[in-house]
Amino acid sequence: MPELQRLRPDHAPALLAFEQENRAYFAASVPDRGDAYFDGFEARHAALLAEQETGACHFHVLVGGDGEIFGRVNLVDVADGSADLGYRIARKAARQGLATSAVEKVCLLAASEYGLTSLRASTTQDNPGSQAVLARTGFVPAGDIELDGRPGVAYTRDLTALRARAGAVSGRRYSA
Length: 176
What we know:
With about 180 residues, the chain is of the alpha+beta class. It has one domain: Aminopeptidase, CATH 3.40.630. The chain has 7 helices and 7 strands, in the order E-H-H-H-H-E-E-E-H-E-H-E-E-H. The chain has helices spanning about 10-20, 25, 35-40, 40-55, 100-110, 130-135, 160-170, and strands spanning about 5, 60-65, 70-80, 80-90, 120-125, 140-145, 150-160. A 7-stranded mixed β-sheet has the order 1-2-3-4-5-7-6, with helices on both faces. Helix 5 packs across helix 7. The longest helix is centred in the middle third of the chain and has 15 residues, at about 100-110. About 25% of the residues are buried. InterPro entries: Acyl_CoA_acyltransferase, GNAT_dom, N-acetyltransferase.
């Protein structure tokens, strides 16, 4: 099972390979990143790491034993105890429970390490796999939305109970 790791500078080559190998697969369900993303990848990676240092975002990758990246799970727009969750899993690793496991782990990190009390996520209505992952990991539908011209669903997850449980286990206490 790949290990969830916080994004680091040395992940760049494997992350670029992951994004390139899965570009068409991802574009079938989420907007394509565009050529500029790939052309300026090194600068983009450095910018993400700098943003992560500010606490405004938390980026994670799923890394196999050989350093290959099988997915990413990100928390972005961190503010006021909340963040947006997004994730991508490689085509060859799909339908193996990896997304569910990774999202669960990031929810625990969000509550225990990052001090968040809630998360938001969204997916298109024609992506039942993502809808199932979000439902299995405690997200509840919060309303219909539009994602790049496609019908979608917004979700939320209250982390209060998870945060209290994590705090009790680790001996940490967080104010709500």
